[in-house]
Structures are given as structure tokens and as C-alpha cells.
Amino acid sequence: MHIHTRLYTDGDWLDPLGDGTIDVISPYTEEIVGRVPDGTPADIERAVAAARAAFDTGPWPRLPVADRADLLDRAADLLERRAAEVGALIIAEMGSPASFVAAGQVPAPIAFLRAAAALAREFPFEEYLGGDGGQTLVLQEPVGVVACVVPSNFPLLLAAAQLAPAIVAGCCVVLKPAPESPLDTYVLAEILREVGLPPGVVNIVPGGSVAGAHLVRHPDVDKVAYTGSAAVGRQVASWCGERLARVSLELGGKSAAIILDDAPLERTVADLLPMAFLNSGQACVAQTRILVSRRRHDEFVDAFAEAMTAMTIGDPADLGTQIGPLLARRQRDRVEGYLDLGRDAGAKIVVGGGRPASQPRGWFVEPTLFVDVDNSMRIAREEIFGPVVCVLDYDDPDEAVAIANDSEYGLSGSVWTADVAAGVDIARRVRTGMVSVNGASQASDAPFGGFKNSGIGRECGTAGLRLYLETKAVGIPGSG
């Protein structure tokens, strides 16, 4: 049991202003593994006030950028030393498979911290423009107090993706982790305190939707960074629009993997499988629509189904597990509802379609493969957020691109081919923020985000840093 009775606010551990608590439940054992305070609007008020004071009168926004970057590097070093501890917490609180935790859930936040520090040291925070009769000094200044609201599926990864550029830019932050997975953020708070982050620069308040809404709508919050569902993202954008607060949104996806006819079958199946079932299917970038030509449809389905059947389902703490439980009982219920919707619409299940008999407890759903799917079906259009994949067929690459783009989402996608140049040509036509050719991964400083209902803005890299900056132009008279 990991019991926390206080909140990290204004550089200290403070008693909460309410008496509610959040039980953190293991999705594998269905037992309580931790408990934290349930942040109230009063706790949010206190945290925002601390961030506001730290930004308006504290040293952080006025420190040299190099000093802020150095602190981020030290935090990355400490996080790396505690990687095993943090990884165990993420497995316990949200059931992410240990192999993926070791490969992504913990290394990625460390990389984000270091990448933001390196970028800040080279970023042009001040530039001079020439002009008749003088110069213009163009300044990039921190946007102010930032609300970071992150979901439960990548708790530390997404927190770092928002926190790193925000604080290296000179902003002060209130972070609200999801109620299902707040435990790892306590380690983050300990690390930030240990490296000497000034009071109020980062404040962490776990809580549910009431606390989140109060934070997003707070008049002293200058910018909101939200990661989550498109439905909630629309509400967040509306609230920010009411007061013209800056906002960035990283939302859902329904990404398409286009398999061209020349793609080598065995390698494509092996490399696509983990991208389709990333984090047990609980990833906005998961490749959940697989587009195959009618000429290769049966061949591909047979091979992919065989690979799915061989996947290991079970204890997320076991390094051999490929599919763990879903992060909440309500999410399992949601996924099972989509399985029924697919059957009712006429789609056929080739693999899976129920709960694994090998797992008498835990919030598991079998990896499921649908065929005979039309792109108008709800299982092809809506984000299921579980280990469910649909295969759709096409006649030629033009039709494949049209099907891929026929979605309200535009986050990710992939093209699979023996001809990389042809794959890049197809990738240029796919209306998403990210596309991989043959599963190639992105650099940690590459822009992350999507088109359409997949969000507004980009995280990571230069684009991510600019989300937390305001531009100021200062006219300077000439010597004459």
C-alpha cells in the first residue's frame, strides 16, 4: 500500500483542505494499492495562488534559461535512478505491461526532460530585427501560470511532456493527475523538491472532474494543457474560449495502418502488432484500423490472427506479458459494449471477443480482431481505447488514403511497404499529425499532436516549447 495524506503545494507537503480520499485500485488484482487525497476546489485555489505568486514575484521566470535547463537535467538524473520504483508504481496503479513500462512509460519522461533542457539552451528567446531608424527586439516570454491535466494511461510520460517545456520556459504549473494513476506523481514531486525547484513552480493536486473543471476555469490560469478524450477536450476549449485563455489539446485517435501490396507479410505483422496493441490498446496513437487490399486480405488476416492468438495475456508485472488489464472497470465495460456494437453491425470477430478464461480476476478483454468492417461502423469511427482492431479492405492506394482520411480524428497512422519512397508519398497524403513508414519511431523532440478532433497544438520539440511562450516586440530607436 502506498498511502499519501498530503498534497505537494508551494514547495511543501500540505494537509488537504478537504477530507476526501481516492483509493487507487490495481486493475490486475482489483485490490487497493494506494490512497491519496481527493483534491477539492479549495485545494486547487491554494495551488493556483502558489503558482501565481511564484510567477509574479518569485525568482523562477527571471532565472537564466541555462539555470532552468540545468535543473531539468538534474531531475532527469534522479528520475533515472528511481526508474525501477516509478515503473513498479505505474504497473500497480494502471496495469501497463512491464515490458512497455521499461521501454516507454519511464524512459520517455526522462528523455522529454533532457530534450527540453537541451532545446532551451539553443532556443532564440531573444532576436533582433533590423529596420529603418532602429531595431526591434523580439522576446519569447513565459506565458504564465499553466494548468496541466493528464490522463491515466501514460501518467508520468504525459505529465513530463507538458511540465518539461512549461517550466524550462519559465512558467509555473498546477498539475492534476488522473485519479486512477496519481502515485507516480508523488515521486516526481519528491524529485523536483530535491533538485531545488523554487516553491510554487510546480504544484500537484490529484482529483476528479470537479477539481479539473475548477482548475481549467480558474481566472488566474493563463494557459491550459489538456490530454484526454475529444469530448472533454471540447468542453475544455469552450471554457478557455470564454476567457481567451491559451489552450493546447492532445486528444484521441483512430489511426489507420495502410498495408501496401508489396509489404513483406511476416515483418509487417511482427512490427505492426505492438503498434496496434500498444499499452494493451490504451493509447491514442494505436493503429486500430488496418487497411489491406482485397488481393492480400485473407493472407494478412490469417497471419495477423495467428500472431494475436500467440500474445501473452496476464500479470502486467511479468516481463513476458503483452496484454495487461484495462485501467478501470468502466473502461472494460466500455470496450465490451463496442464488441457488441461491432457484432450487431455485421462485423465478424476472427480472434477474441470476450474475457480471457485464463484471467479470473482483473479488468481484462481479449485482443480482438474484427473483419468485414465498413468504415461507417462505429467500431471503425470511434476510439474504443482497448485491444480491439478492425481490418478494412481497399482496391487501390487512392481508396486506402481516402478511407484513412475519412475520420473525425487525425492523430497518427502508418504505411507499410517495401518501397520507402512510395511510403513517404502516401504518408504525405494522410491527414494526420504523425505518420510512420514501416513503424519507424519518432525522436523525443519531434512534434507530437494531431489534426481535426485529435487536438490543437503540438507537444515536444520547438513546437511544444512555443506553446508555453508569448511573443513580445520591443522597438529600439536608432542612434541617429
From TrEMBL:
Location of the active site: 250
GO molecular function, a single term: aldehyde dehydrogenase (NAD+) activity
Occurrences of domain Aldehyde dehydrogenase (ranges): 18-474
Pfam families documented for this protein: Aldedh
Zinc keyword on record: no
Alphabetically ordered keywords of this record: Oxidoreductase
Record-listed E.C. numbers: 1.2.1.3
PROSITE patterns registered for this protein in UniProt: ALDEHYDE_DEHYDR_CYS (PS00070), ALDEHYDE_DEHYDR_GLU (PS00687)
Catalyzed chemical reaction(s): an aldehyde + NAD(+) + H2O = a carboxylate + NADH + 2 H(+)
Family assignment from sequence similarity: Belongs to the aldehyde dehydrogenase family.
Protein name: aldehyde dehydrogenase (NAD(+))
Organism for this UniProt entry: Frankia nepalensis
